[in-house]
Amino acid sequence: MALHDFIGRITNLTVSRKADFGYFLTDGEEDVLVHNNELQEELELDQEVDVFLYIDSQNRIAATTILPEITVGTYGWAKVSDVKPGIGVFINIGIQKDMLLGEEDLPVHESVWPEVDDLLYITLRVNKNYRIYVKTATDPVITDISVKAEASDFNKNIHGHIYRTAKVGSWIYTAEGFKGFIHESQRKTEPRLGEKVEGRVIDVKDDGTINVSLIPRKQEALDDDSQVILSYLESRGGAMPYWDKSAPEDINDRFNLSKASFKRALGRLMKEGRVYQEEGWTYVKKENNEPS
């Protein structure tokens, strides 16, 4: 096999000669350079060494003694290192050269493209011009590495990374190894590919996969909504021109809450004695619970 056939893979070569800028390695027919900055230790003539082959910026085969876990046909988790709109995202597989996940293999909408430090489960592919590209894991690949959830996992809090996204929903691989689906109705916004999200198990299916919701439980949502109201009150010195009879559109514009959510959170704050209402306004109560 020619050296081109090992691009994106690890192969064993022999040191043929030393140069000022590195070493030339050979398979007996072709030579390839491993640059000094791709060495982990000094090499000796005739030494056999395992290297990873790739194409450098000048379209030449190059080698590195830094061996990535992710190669052609081998999957692993890797972080996004850079995002180039209109081109794709670059991913760090552990060597100095980052690998490209092209825009044609990313979601149509750039708003759900991965961001720097998002995590993807990937392998490498080589095109007909011997360029290496990133390939994200498909459903069958994720199925192979996943474990089955049990009925006892129902309502459990989970976190994981999005490995596939679509308008109808998002697919997640959790820290426990569960494969899950997040229906569009169970998320406030569409998560990015590779984004880490937190949610809860709302169904364990017969095949051991799970359905996940990213919407907080009512009690958790109430806590969040109450804090939104309190923060706004504090920013205005303890008074705001909103109460439980305010128009729904005004509430949504100011707090990004439905009127029902706003009334529940406000009602809780009043029940706890933290706020009170008067003539269309809401006020923070003093610590002694007397009106301010």
TrEMBL record:
Cited Pfam families: CvfB_1st, CvfB_2nd, S1_2, WHD_CvfB
Residue span, S1 motif domain: 155-215
Alphabetical list of InterPro entries matching this protein: CvfB_fam (IPR014464), CvfB_S1_2nd (IPR048588), CvfB_S1_3rd (IPR048587), CvfB_S1_st (IPR039566), CvfB_WH (IPR040764), NA-bd_OB-fold (IPR012340), S1_domain (IPR003029), WH-like_DNA-bd_sf (IPR036388)
Source taxon at top rank: Bacteria
PANTHER family named in the record: CONSERVED VIRULENCE FACTOR B (PTHR37296:SF1)
Sequence similarity: Belongs to the CvfB family.
Protein name according to UniProt: S1 motif domain-containing protein
Species whose genome carries this gene: Bacillus mesophilum
